[in-house]
Each structure stands twice: as structure tokens, then as C-alpha cells.
Amino acid sequence: MTSLKFGTSGLRGLVTDLVGRPTFTYASAFFASVGAHAGGRREVVIGRDLRASSAGIAATVATAAAAAGMTAIDCGALPTPALALEARKRDCLAVMVTGSHIPDDRNGLKFYRSGGEITKADEAAILAALGDIADDAPLPPAVPAAPEPDAIARYRDRYRDVFAPDLLAGLRIAVYQQSSVARDVLVEVLAALGAEAVPIGRSETFVPIDTEAHRPQDVAFIRDAMAAGGFDALVTTDGDADRPLVAEAAGRILRGDVLGLITARYLGADAVVVPVTAGSAIERAGGFGRVLRTKVGSPFVIAGMEQAARDGARIVCGFEANGGFLAGSDGPVGDKILPALPTRDAVLPILATLAAARAAALPLADLVAALDVGETASDRLPDTPAARSGPFLRRLADDTFRREFLRPVGRPQAVDEQDGVRIELDGGRTIHFRASGNAPELRCYAEAKSAKDAEDLVRWGLAAAGTTMAEGA
Fold first, then answer.
1. Any idea which residues carry the catalytic annotation?
2. HSE value, Cβ hemisphere, 13 Å, CA-based, for 35
3. Residues paired with 17 in a beta bridge
4. Over the stretch 119-140, which tens digit does the pLDDT of each residue have?
């Protein structure tokens, strides 16, 4: 039984289930299915994050590329969006070796066409192609990839060439480097745009930074760093730098969907695509011509952006509750144009949020307070497989059961069943239950006017769901 599976973005699993033959097989299936119909050059650019297993897995991907008759190009350790940018420039495929924010004993593969991330249909094609690849033959001899050291520089220049060199002048920014693959380029970009960028917390072992579920030790580190350093903000990213984390001067971490909201406003977007887990302030405070909500996962957000563009939107973007921002179309930044990059990116929302605060002459905390975004909370019931969560979610979709179930906390209003069941309650609150796409978990999200009310709603929701599922067992 393997732990490998496609989740909300890419293939993930235990390192022991991925190294060697499994990596070769999945990469070969990608080249044989998606690669056979992708057009463009017979090349693949390969990148990796900084976890211990990534370099070896990347070498296996290069060997699979050679076996498929493709030229493998090694872009080294670089952010996932930087690799996607290189694939667009070269009009070729890309494979990123990363487990994103999960622990070091796990890893994964993210597959790209030249235009961006693969779709759910592409994932199905890869799985279908696995059976055509021999899984008992010895691996062919290793074939090293041709090095391409300049890909990360092109990503850095994407922002240095568009944003003004004094954009962040006067700001003192702590860059929590940990093991983010963007830890150096982030310092370089911030300094190039006028900020005083101060590196802190560099680690030579992998640190699993999750921009949604913050570890207590990370929260404490950020709070203490901000209390001691006299910084205007602290910034960092997850392992492969497609999700940002920004903390304001007092050390409070800003929500990822708030970073997305600020960035979309800064770029003048007229159509915004977000998953159902993003806060409702996007409709209330965004001022956008259209907001489209999708299932959780960047492939769904990308499909939504493509639909918005077909519908005539001029500047389209998307973002997720974890803060990853997708530029779905070219957009003006002053008298320059920022080219589209329809994959999750951490650097753009960091720069745009800091720039918006400086332009408004407001501390970050005051900029966010002016948006009146409310408060959110989330938690999960672990060890809850689909066989348990599925029947509960189906019952919750029934109007009669839903009203009775929610009676202790309020009256249900509008319902969204795209991904689990998201329910608007009276008093401007929401509660949302969904099964995780990455683990056997039932997740609960809530919105309310105060943090305590949101946390209480999540606590009640998980307890009530657990009781209901136990009674139905």
C-alpha cells in the first residue's frame, strides 16, 4: 500500500514510497501522457526545494526524461513559481520536486505544462498511463541534466524590472529565512525595491512552515522576533515558496486570503477567483466586478480564471486561503506590465501587501483593519476517512437535517456545496465542513466578527460532527 496520491496541488507521499522506481514511473507517465500532447519543445525543466531527499528525486526525474527522449534541464533549488516561469519562457514541460509545507520525511512532484499547472484531467491521464510503464525492470543508467543556473535570476528580475526601485523605501523587513527555497531571492528583491531586508532564522535542516496551520514554535519565534527587532513586518514562505506568510509589527500573522485581497486590489483586478474556503470579505470589501468561487485546489482556481477571461474580464487573478497568488493575465503596475504567471506565487503578494501599506502611509495592522475582514478559524478531526466523513457531509446537504444540526448555533442561510458544505449563518457568520484532499481528515472552517466567536464555532462544529458520525457508525 503506497502513500502516494494527488492532492490539491501535485503528488505527495512518504519519501520511502517516492524515491527510485516510483518517481521514475510517475515522471515517465507524465511524459507519456501529458507530454505527448503538450506541444512545445521536447524539454523539461526540473527544480527542487531544500529538503534532504529532493536532489536525489530530481536526478531520477532527469533519468526518466532521458528515457522518454526528452532533454532534461536542471534549474537547481528555486521557487516553484520560478520554475513555472522558466517553463513558460522555454515553452516546455516542468517538474518540481517538493513536498511544500509537509515534514521532511515526505516529498512530492508538481507537474507543469508550459502554460502552467496540470489540470485534474491531466492527473487522471497520468494515473491511467502508469499501467503502461514496467514497474519491475531495472532503472536505466542515470543521465545528468544540463544545468541552468539563471532561472532563479529571471524570476528575481520579473519583480525588479516592473516595480519601482523605491517602492518599499523606509520599510524595515525581517526575512525569516528558515529552509524556504526563496530565502535568498526574497532578501535580494526586497532590498532592490528599497527596503531594509534583515535575514533572520536561517536553518540548514528542513522546517515545515505551513502558512495556514501555524506551528506554536513558529508563532512564538515570529512574535519574539518582532518584539525585539523594530521591524515594520516579517515575511517568509513555505518550503517551495508558492505560499506567503506576512506578520505585522506586533507579530500577528495576517491571513493568506487577506494578503490575496490586498494584492488583487493593488493590481486593479476586475475578476477574482478563490476557493470556497476563502473569507467572504472578498465579496464584501474587494470592490471587484466578479468573484468566482471554486473547489479547493489551484487546478480549480486556474480553471476559474480561464473561465473569467473567456467571459471578458480584463485583469484576472486568483488566490487561495493559504495566500498563494495566481496572476491569470498581464496587468499594469504603474507604467509597466507584469506578465501573467498562473501558478501560486509567494513573492508577489508579499511585495504588493507591503507596497499597499506604504502607499497608504499605514502600518500593516491598520491597513487590514480598514478592510473589516472579520476573523476566521479552522481545525480538523484527524483519522476521519472518507467512509466516515462522506455520509455526514451528505446528510448536512439535506435542508431538514442541516437546520436541526445547526440549531444550537444559529439559522442557516445560503449554502455552497462545491467542496463539502459551506453554510452562511445569521449574524454574518459562516461554518464550512469539508473532507481534506490530502489526508483522512474532516476540516471545519468558520468566520465571525471576533476571533473568539470563530474559534468557538469551529470547536462546536468539530465536536458536533464527531458525535454525529459516531452515532451513525
1. 100
2. 25
3. none
4. 889 999 999 999 888 777 788 9
